[in-house]
Amino acid sequence: MDAFYASVEQRDDPALRGRPVAVGGSRQRGVVAAASYEARQYGVRSAMPSVTARRKCPELVFVPPRFDVYRAVSAQIHAVFARYTKLIQPLSLDEAYLDVTVSLIAHPSATAIAEEIRAAIRAETGLTASAGVSYNKFLAKLASDVRKPNGQYVITPRMGPRFVEALPVERFHGIGPATAARMHALGIRTGLDLRAWDMERLARHFGRAAAFYHGIARGVDERPVEPDRKRKSIGAERTLEQDIHHWEQALPVLDLLVDRVWEACAKRGLGGRTVTVKVRYADFRHTGRARSLAAPLASRAALREVAVGLMRPFFPPEMGVRLLGVTLSNLDDGETAASGTQFALALDAS
């Protein structure tokens, strides 16, 4: 989807159309969750501090997020996808991979399917979508950005290796800022540079990821579209209005984060065995701790107890704290979690 959250807000409020819009907190310590294309022309981007965004674009209009609305629109979009294939792998509320090798509706090409899906989304939601069409996930993802907004692009098997050659490695989906910096230090700046490295040399520097990097440099990606891919973690973070220095200030925030994580797990029927807490300081350095349990956590109180035990040693901090986070991972479905809970209670009783 094109600037999804911001586009929904502009759709629902005509006064916002054509104006630079940021979804997120307008306060001093807020962060931009999404920016309209009008705002992006000023350099405003998602994850940017609100104060920076305001500096770049004094006319920026901040709108609080409405995640219930975004989820409802996302469900409409996925209902459109489901008319064409059962092989849908969501990446987020506004993005997904579709395998249309065997489509539920007869069409001459994947290109025609993408065009029809985009038209249906526009007709049924009033929003625009962009599409990338290719023979693997890596290239389809790259292609989806080529003609944004409201466009699509096709990378054929013949085009694939050439398309990758000139692309900077930081543009590769799957190579983050830290890995891109490491590659730059090794003289790898483009797909062609990456292609010059053999598997053995890549493995020495990048370990298990070497095979993926070796493949994508050649336009090869064997990963299937995984419609039943399990979620790996559920987390929540809070950027604080002011830096905090005392445990009494941190505890109410921690309780709020625990509530959000536990509620999200309960809605999905999931339990988790690993709790991680995150602390970001005033100078943007961050740290954290994690604890893994033998069985999935049985209750919100149990999650809170572990989170408190992990977070407490960070206080009092050497400098102010600007962000706290809690994540639950090693997730299991409700049935597994329930059996694990009984086991944990039996241990406690003995």
TrEMBL record:
Cofactor: Mg(2+)
Gene Ontology terms, MF aspect: damaged DNA binding; DNA-directed DNA polymerase activity; magnesium ion binding
Active site: residue positions: E95
Entry GO CC: cytosol
Main localization, broad class: cytoplasm
Site entry (Substrate discrimination), positions: Y5
Pfam families xref list: IMS, IMS_C, IMS_HHH
Gene3D superfamilies, per the entry: 3.30.70.270, 3.40.1170.60, 5' to 3' exonuclease, C-terminal subdomain, DNA polymerase, Y-family, little finger domain
Keywords associated with the record: Cytoplasm, DNA damage, DNA repair, DNA replication, DNA-binding, DNA-directed DNA polymerase, Magnesium, Metal-binding, Mutator protein, Nucleotidyltransferase, Transferase
PANTHER family: DNA POLYMERASE KAPPA (PTHR11076:SF33), DNA REPAIR POLYMERASE UMUC / TRANSFERASE FAMILY MEMBER (PTHR11076)
General function of this protein: Poorly processive, error-prone DNA polymerase involved in untargeted mutagenesis. Copies undamaged DNA at stalled replication forks, which arise in vivo from mismatched or misaligned primer ends. These misaligned primers can be extended by PolIV. Exhibits no 3'-5' exonuclease (proofreading) activity. May be involved in translesional synthesis, in conjunction with the beta clamp from PolIII.
Protein name: DNA polymerase IV
